[in-house]
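Schema walk-through. Below, the input block comes first and the output block second. Nothing else is stored per chain. Lengths vary across the set, and this one has 408 residues.
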Amino acid sequence: MVDKLQRNIKIVYALAFFHMFLLIVPVLVPYFQSKGLSLSEIFYLQAIYAGAIVILEAPSGYFADVMGRRLALMIGALAHGLGFFWLNFADGFWGLVIFELVLGLAVSMLSGADLALLYDSERALAQGDGEHAQSLSKLGFTKSLAEGLGALFGGLLAMWSFDIMVLVQSLTAWVCLWMALLVVEPPVDNVNEPGDRVVSLKDIYQHVARGDRILRMVFIALPVYNLATIHVAWLIQPYWDDMGLSLALFGALWFAQSLTVALASKCSYALEKSTGAVFALVVIGVLPVIGIFGMAWLGGWAGVALCFVLFFCRGLYQVILANALNRRIPGRFRATVNSLNSLLFRFGFILTGPFVGYLADTHGISAALNLLGVWSVLAFAVVMLPLIRAVRLLEAGRIDSRREGGVV
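--- output ---
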């Protein structure tokens, strides 16, 4: 069993790699525009995608906790393959809506289950919190590296043909199902059979909303900072298009940005350990302000360069905040809490995404970026500063560290 659990960890990394090996990502906006969609319609399409995840996210996490991570991964991987298979035939807005809905199911099933399976496998192998953080950084590095390599090849294939790019993407997407079939179900909280698990929603609410103060703040901070970066990610391609860049350069730039996320993920644990949690949180809070306003005010290649600051921040918070969240969650409902956290982010995009797209269409990309810059300033003042104060109190011993579960 030990060998199988150790193999689980490697398989999770492999599944994450092929899940994020997305050839279409660096040219997704031009690709959708080639199907006749405007920038506003693209944001509406992504809002529908987010809506599908809002509906499915919490049930899928609950499903993974009750029925098992392996079954959730298999269903998500199957939907991932079917979604990209359908993309070969999808055309127009409503054809792409079907694609986004199927991908929404895939992401909902995979998003919480893979991380929960990684944590549960490591806990069963009696590994410590520090090793969890390093494994999470490796997972983030793997995903970002896969996204970068996919972007590099995707940009080159897009120069040849969008149809060829989608065909290759639809073939590589099925590798996820192969990986999901290879994992074994790890033991969770002394529960051996998936059907025997009982997950109380009341217990989840009490644990997240009424218990650990830092957990509660991190639970809010993750979707807030995800929102800032995802909006910029959807604006960056039309930003490059306004500069007259080629699709091949789209892929090269996305590769460089994904590599930046990967490197930040890799060094995030070392940064927090060497400089302290407070300094790491300040960096996470300040970098989006610099990156987003830099893109809005400077433009051109200077704006492109400062965008890398934002992607570096993304690599940091995806590990530091995600580890702070997961180390404070019992294994029996870890997938559910991760799914609920993702649900908050998706619901936030439904509320804000179409407006950001409309603003970019009617007033220009700079106006939309300035709005997101204001968002990042408010996020630092309203979300990050209270979290920093709570961590300082914890480090000073004024909060019971045994109850709070340790520093971020």
